[in-house]
Amino acid sequence: MSVAVGDVVTGRDIVVDAEKMKIMAALLEDPNPIHWDTRAVADLGLGDAPVNQGPLNMGYIQSMLAQWAGGRDRIREFRARFLGNVFGGQTVRAGAEVTAVVQGPEGQRIECEIWLDVDGVGRVMSGTATVIMDK
Questions:
Q1: Residue 124 · residue 86 · CB < 8 Å
Q2: By the 8 A CB rule, do 80 and 114 touch?
Q3: How far from 2 is each of 6, 63, 98, CA to CA, in Å?
Q4: C-beta of residue 104 within 8 angstroms of C-beta of residue 32
Q5: Is the CA virtual torsion 93, 98, 113, 25 positive or negative?
Q6: Half-sphere exposure of residue 63, counting CA atoms within 13 Å on the CB side?
Q7: Tens-place pLDDT, residues 42-101
Q8: Which of 26, 42, 76, 111 is most buried, judging by how many CB atoms fall within 10 Å of its CB?
Q9: pTM value?
């Protein structure tokens, strides 16, 4: 696959499922009620929908990168900064823009700016990632 600086990759739209947040909270042993109790969210003045976990938000970006690069094992570096919350029922889309391509012994080392956007809200996560693609 030919990759060049400036190429933009985006994932598919994903509607954040509040029920999956409950499952993830249990798996992570996350005691924070904002992930399942809408009263706790409202008490904090954040609205009436549960707040998605950060690892799930990062996972949307990592899944998009893995699909593009050819597998999760292709992700070599990943750094993300949280800019806002994602709530149950919102639609998110992950994206990346290629900032550097270097040929190496493993293949192409591709550095990217990454993000997660919420439809109608804007950017809620940004960062950088490096993936390896075949020569």
A1: yes
A2: yes
A3: 12, 20, 12
A4: no
A5: positive
A6: 14
A7: 999 999 999 999 999 999 999 999 999 999 999 999 999 999 999 999 999 999 999 999
A8: 111
A9: 0.92
